[in-house]
Amino acid sequence: MKKIAILVNETAHQGRGGSLWQKARQEVLAILPPGTLEIRFSPPFDLDFHLRKLVENGVDCFISAGGDGSANFLLNALMNRQKTGDPPFSLGGIGLGSSNDFLKPIGGKIAGLPVRMNWQTSRLADVGEVVFENETGKTERLFFIANASLGVTSTANFRFNHPGFLLKILKRYWTGGAIILAALQTILQWKNLTTQLIYNDLEDEVALSNLAVLKNPHVSGDFKYDQPIQQDDGWLGLNYCAGMNRFELMKTLADLSKGRFSGKPKRFSELVKNLLAKTDELLPLETDGEVRLAKNIHFSLVPQGTRLLGHGYYSP
């Protein structure tokens, strides 16, 4: 690595990001190499402009201090400026957000915040890619580092990101409870979606209840899939539920809270290189906690598209 920059989203975690960062700032900067840069921002933010200046200044390692959405914002900006033949950039994180799936499993904390900033144990890692048709009919491309989803999970994420009064209060003081409430509210109103899934030379039309595409088995709070997906194995982990009623969805939710998913009726797990989900209507598509409307959604991989810093931190 040449040089490190920390990008701090002060609006993360319902506006608490700035105060959380202040509690950890001195200890973080004492651990990182001299000359580490710090950029604080509040959306909207011209990230492309700042990245250009940082790269010109020799920065090739970027640490996102924020939530999963902040890390995804940074990942997409970096991937979009990456040119063929460029060495992979390094990416780390400091958890100021609600769920911080990108940092799981938690390998160490600073001032109570989970961190992923051990450059000694960094390794090349795959990046997920999604190409889809958006609500204006245009083709759009996004990247994800932890996971993506359709169905109950993505709809619950949308509800979590746009909370009502009760959910907003719960989200501020008890993240795990807010995640469960958003999921239960979504399940109680859920109707399965007719979706055509194409993967591994198979084609199947299903009444889709939920679909998760993983590069990290940890999703939303304490929920976790039991698929042995690795961030550098060259595969996407496909896990989906089809034809489920509300009780079965709640049972699946309870199982995921205990790290169990596979081996049950109406649940399917596969390792795939590509997946196409075709629908006649727009669906909420979630990538690292961020939700957009999409249809005709194609998931694939950018093998070894980045270098991820290790969990925890290295203290020289």
Q: Any low-confidence stretches, pLDDT <50, length ≥5?
A: none
| Number of domain modules | 2
* Residues in helix, %: 25-40%
How many beta-strand elements? 18
What fold name stands as the CATH topology of the largest domain? Tumour Suppressor Smad4
Name the beta content range: 35-45%
Mind telling me the CATH class of the largest domain? Mainly Beta
User: What's the end-to-end separation, in Å?
Assistant: 15 Å
Q: What is the CATH architecture descriptor of the largest domain?
A: Sandwich
Biggest β-sheet description: 16 strands, mixed
Taking Cα atoms only, what radius of gyration do you get, to the nearest Å? 19 Å
Number of helices: 8
Average pLDDT over all residues: 92
**Shape estimate:** globular
Order of helices and strands: EHHEHEHEEEEEHHHEEEEEHEEEEE
Q: What is the structural class?
A: alpha+beta
The multimeric state of the shown protein is single chain
3D architecture notes:
The chain has 316 residues and is of the alpha+beta class. The chain has two domains: 4-126 and 305-313, 3-Layer(aba) Sandwich (Rossmann fold), CATH 3.40.50; 130-302, Tumour Suppressor Smad4, CATH 2.60.200.40. 28% of the residues lie in helices and 40% in strands. It has eight helices and 18 strands. It has helices at 12-15, 17-31, 47-56, 68-81, 152-161, 165-173, 175-188, 246-256; strands at 4-9, 37-41, 61-66, 90-95, 109-110, 113-133, 139-144, 147-151, 193-199, 202-214, 218-219, 223-224, 236-242, 267-272, 275-278, 283-287, 290-310, 312-313. The strands form two sheets. The chain has a 16-stranded mixed sheet that branches. Helix 6 runs antiparallel to helix 7 and helix 7 (175-188) packs antiparallel against helix 8. The longest helix has 15 residues, at 17-31. The two termini are 15 Å apart. The mean pLDDT is 92.
